[in-house]
Amino acid sequence: MTKTAQASEKRELEDLSRAVEALIFVSDEPVTTRLLSDVLEEDRELIEALIEDLVKAYDERNAGLQIRQVAGGWQLSTRTECHEYVRKFLKTRPSAKLSLAALETLAVIAYKQPVTVPEILEIRGVQSASAIKTLLEKRLIVTKGLKETVGRPMQYGTSKEFLLHFGLKDLTDLPSIEDFQDLVQ
Predict the structure, then answer these.
(1) Would residue 44 count as lying in a domain?
(2) What angle (nearest 5°) sits at the alpha carbon of residue 19, between those of residues 16 and 25?
(3) What is the pLDDT along the chain (185 residues), one digit of tens a residue?
(4) Gap between the Cα atoms of 152 and 146, Å rounded
(5) Number of compact structural domains in the chain
(6) What H or E segment, with its residue span, contains residue 77?
């Protein structure tokens, strides 16, 4: 391969990398490698390699932004160390304030899903209907169908919005229950 051909190929990869970065930036939700591959009409493995290079570049610069894998896709976000500065700049408080009851209910659903209202009641010891309504309205939980038991109660589980809101790649990113027990002791 001639130097001119190599330079041309390098420019094409740089252009493609910029396109991947731009698409991740403009997407209002995490964008999958598959979608990027389809839109750019390029091989999925090449797109994955370009994303890895972009992640590495942001990390090496210790930039204020980072590309993270969240909820099955890629998203550009501010680095955790910058959150307080961003919050102060925007003069806002966290937008999705939840009551203690809603947080407890959400935790039960996150760790025990799919779970029914009676099962939540058994764990929490109190009714959770209003907390479930709030979590459904905020789209942090979704219905997961009916349980195959007497009365066929509705089952609930966390949503993609839950993963987005808490910045989780998937449910395996949740802290273990043992981690919480260590905090209490």
Answers:
(1) yes
(2) 145
(3) 666 656 567 778 899 999 999 999 999 899 999 999 999 999 999 999 999 999 999 999 999 999 999 999 999 999 989 988 888 887 755 555 788 889 999 999 999 999 999 999 998 888 888 899 999 988 999 999 998 888 889 999 999 989 988 888 898 888 887 766 665 55
(4) 5
(5) 2
(6) strand 73-78
Q: Is the dihedral of CA 136, 141, 145, 151 positive or negative?
A: negative
Domain of 39 in residue numbering reads as 3-90
Query: The CATH number of the domain where 53 resides is what?
Result: 1.10.10.10
CA dihedral 41, 47, 48, 54 (to 10 degrees): -150
Query: Do 58 and 116 belong to one domain?
Result: no
Q: Which of 61, 90, 119 is the last residue of a domain?
A: 90
79 lies in the same domain as 108? no
Specify whether the CB–CB gap between 169 and 163 falls below 8 A: yes
In a domain, 181, yes or no: no
